[in-house]
Design goal:
It is a single chain. By secondary structure, the protein is mainly alpha-helical. The chain has one domain (17-234). It has eleven helices and no strands. It has helices spanning 8-15, 21-38, 45-54, 58-66, 70-92, 111-120, 124-146, 148-156, 162-175, 178-208, 225-234. The longest helix has 31 residues, at 178-208. The radius of gyration is 23 Å and the shape is globular. The mean pLDDT is 91.
Amino acid sequence: MAEQLYTIPVNDAFDTDCECPLCQMQRNLEANAIEYTMGPSYMEDDNRAMTDKLGFCTHHMRMLYAEKNRLGLALMMKTHTDKTIKDLKELAAKGPAPKAGLFGKGDSQSPVTKYISNLESTCFICNKMGNTFDRYVDTIFHMWKKDKDFIAKFKSCKGFCTYHYGILYDYGSKKLSKEQYSEFLNILNDVYFTNMERVNGDIGWFIDKFDYRFKNEPWKNSKDALPRGIVKTNHTIIE
């Protein structure tokens, strides 16, 4: 199948020498989203309205702070906190949640608590990444159905983290025919477990190397076993 614009990020990730192509896609999306957020876009009214409403999760706030555009971040924080103060003043004026009635009816959360809980669960960058990542997953199954070369590439990759293995496992049933899904699962399971066992063995040898009996043995492929194991178990790429 001729490469299309929408297939390039997927192909690029599967061409990367990594322990999970989907983690690689997310890493690329995160870098692009951080760059976009701290670029000229923060001056656009639509984007500012979204950052004011959604805010940023702790992880991405740290990443934004690490960027050099402190003025841009300060401007976003100012209008975000302006909105938060305004909204919470209005909600606080309504008072706490009413007590539950005789039969336990009533909302146990105050409007203030609901607002804060919602704010803590949203992030402008997570949202931006998530929408595009969903399209990438769709593309994986589109390519599976249309591109034999991609199937070969899928088979030869270094597997997936457990989180993304689960996404592929479930998502395939929605995107593939019964026969295609059966073939997909056989290949997915083989790729996942073969490579999990490979990394597990490398971690085991890394541990053994701290035993004096193996002091003079070669490290084999275990020197970077920990960061590779973290990818597999926590879908987090360690630099």
